Amino acid sequence: MAKTPITKRGAELLRAELQRLKTVERPNVITAIAEARAHGDLSENAEYDAARERQAFVEGRLAEIEAKLGNAQIIDPKLLDAEGRCVFGATVDLEEVGGEAVTYQIVGEDEAEIKEGRISISSPIARALIGKDAGDVVEVRTPGGVKRYEIIDVRYV
């Protein structure tokens, strides 16, 4: 199975969520189930049903995070030396031809958040940027049409 790239920051966030689920959420769910059982008849106990659904969600999320971390290729952008080339983890300053300037970091799918300037490696913009150098112009097909961006700077932070 191919490894999934994730930044060091993204892996740390997943580990923190895993720790929170194991130490806070799981015990809370167990307590809620025990309290609901104490109320008697489980067949018509909405609190019990809700607690069991929450337990299923928590356990599913735990399994999902553990699988992602087990299959992750963790990349620290600070350690990259790609000499100005756009690669996974790079922070790229772009200027839309005839438009505004934007900055994006190319990250894994799970850590992408466009409002915070993090785009998924599988997004059209990231796919167009990968392998390009500062000064290059790239064309990106978007739902609104083709956009052209000039790569102003590439950093590894």
Question: Secondary-structure blueprint of this entry?
Answer:
Layout: E1 4-7, H1 8-38, H2 46-70, E2 72-75, E3 91-96, E4 101-107, E5 118-120, H3 124-129, E6 137-142, E7 145-155
Parallel strand pairs: 1-2, 4-5
Antiparallel strand pairs: 3-4, 3-7, 6-7
Structure explained in plain terms:
The chain has helices at 8-38, 46-70, 124-129; strands spanning 4-7, 72-75, 91-96, 101-107, 118-120, 137-142, 145-155. The strands form two sheets. The protein has a five-stranded mixed sheet with strand order 5-4-3-7-6. The protein has a two-stranded parallel sheet with strand order 1-2. The chain folds into two domains: 4-74, Transcription elongation factor, GreA/GreB, N-terminal domain (Helix Hairpins, Orthogonal Bundle); 77-155, Chitinase A, domain 3. By secondary structure, it is an alpha/beta fold. Helix 1 (8-38) runs antiparallel to helix 2 (46-70).
Structure characteristics:
single chain; 157 residues; alpha/beta; Helix Hairpins; Chitinase A, domain 3; five-stranded mixed β-sheet; 3 helices; 39% helix
